[in-house]
Amino acid sequence: MEIVTTHKGTDFDALACVVAATLLFPKAIACLPKTQNPNVRSFLSLHKDHFSFLWPTDVDLHRVTRLIVVDTNAWHRLDGFQALEDKKGLEIYLYDHHGNDGDIQPVWQCRQAVGAAITLMLRDLKAQGKTISPIHASLFLAGLYEDTGNLTFASTTAEDAHAAAYLLEAGADLKILSTFVNPAYDRKQKDLLFGMLQKTEISNLNGSWVSIIQIGVDGYVENLAVLVQTIRQIMNVDAAFGIFSVSGSRCLVIGRSIADSINVGAMMRCMGGGGHPGAGSTMAKAINPGVLAAWIRILISGKGHTSGKVRDLMTTPVFTVSPESTMEAAAIALRNRAFHGAPVVKQDQLLGIISLRDLRRLKRKNRHQLPVKAFMSTPVHTIQPWKNPAAATHLMVKHDIGRLPVVDEGRLVGIITRSDAMSHFYGLCPLNDQLDRTCPTDVK
Ligand SMILES: [Mn+2]
Fold first, then answer.
1. DSSP letters along 3-54, please?
2. pLDDT digits (tens, 9 = 90+) for 357-374
3. 169: how many CB neighbours lie within 10 A of its CB?
């Protein structure tokens, strides 16, 4: 049995990719997560007769031989398929346009940083000469427009624009599109937008204009992400962040950015969520909204109002790996110590970083005997021990890395990880420290 699936909180791009995959793999059965974005839900309820989907609970996992994953590359974002992660002989195919943060190990993949994942699928549909009906074209264009902000987000590529032209030629209906992609605001959304406009604070952080809004939300309000996007446009800022106190001690944080220097996805990953450079979100539990706002400012500016130093947080001595050791030996050493990665060092010289993720990428067993130096990542970003922890987090967010060697006068003296830096900031939080790791439905 072949199954196509995508991420929880399914948006139009994800839905478009699932449908496109069933055209590319006619034997595959489409399976949608139980949670979908509100506009996708209303689209599906109107187009019930055109598409057929299974729920994850309808699938007998034992019978799945091929899993086609679209618009995500992380197991935790799938609904109900985690049990397949270690299944022997399962073939995984992947189409995705997200960053390098996932842990799904496909046997075949098409991954590229384009504006929308449907652009990648369309490339193959065109190459295989598949015909696209006007309804398919409309759905695909909805995904393309939603993920690229009508081709205006910085992540948009020329291929996305070509894909849009191709879909218009195939009969995509712009009237249907505007009904679903930009649905009219309901009463609650209008009220909340009004409140957000009054509360928005604008500041210049590291040369970018950023608007941060803290606001309470009464009951359920649909599609808060659209409101954050609207605020960004009205305020004409580089990035906007909404911190919505949802209920009790939970806050939903949603960010939208058009500046290359503000990578919302990396910031939200740091805060326990996820997303793209231009869009992301996280659900934070038991953290005061004011602390979340301060955290966002720290992540963007790299300036924390804290007195600690990197040397107080770093781990020392550092476990290192020699460039000549085999990948297999390095992996065993890392696993025994429960580390995810380590610096590669030769005679006090820091050469690179090797991680378990690099090892998982080696497909063929015989490559495990190759030396670490062939697979380590370079160049290495480093930090000095006397720097502020906020500067360390800033670097980790900017380059989307999980660990930072601490170097003093050319010598490796320690290492600081994302969780070291975060535990420092959490220490400042009045309510302290849990993050809810579930991805909220607004993540694009
Ligand atoms: Mn997408």
1. EEE--SSB-HHHHHHHHHHHHHSTTPEEB--S-B-HHHHHHHHHSGGG---B
2. 787 777 666 778 889 998
3. 10
Q: Give all domains of the chain, ordered by start, each with its CATH number.
A: 2-181 (3.90.1640.10), 187-301 (3.10.310.30), 310-419 (3.10.580.10)
Token representation of residue 399: 């380059």
Q: How many CA atoms lie within 13 A of 416 on its CB side?
A: 30
Ligand 1 geometric centre to CA of 429 (Å) = 33
State pLDDT tens for residues 166-177.
Answer: 999 999 999 888
422 Cα: distance to centroid of ligand 1 (angstroms): 28
* The two structure tokens encoding residue 47: 């187009």
Report the interhelical angle of 117-127 vs 158-169 (nearest 10°): 60
Cα(225)–Cα(441) distance, rounded to whole angstroms? 10
Gap from CA of 284 to ligand 1 centroid (Å): 23
Q: pLDDT band at residue 94, thresholds of 50, 70 and 90? A: very high
Position 320 confidence tier, pLDDT thresholds 50, 70, 90: very high
Give residue 424 CA to ligand 1 midpoint distance, Å. 33
CB 253 within 8 A of CB 271: yes
CA–centroid distance, 74 to ligand 1, in Å, is 13
Q: Is 80 left (phi over 0), alpha (psi -120 to 50) or beta?
A: left
Residues by chain with Cβ below 5 Å of ion ligand 1? 13, 71, 117, 147
Place of tokens 């839905």: 15
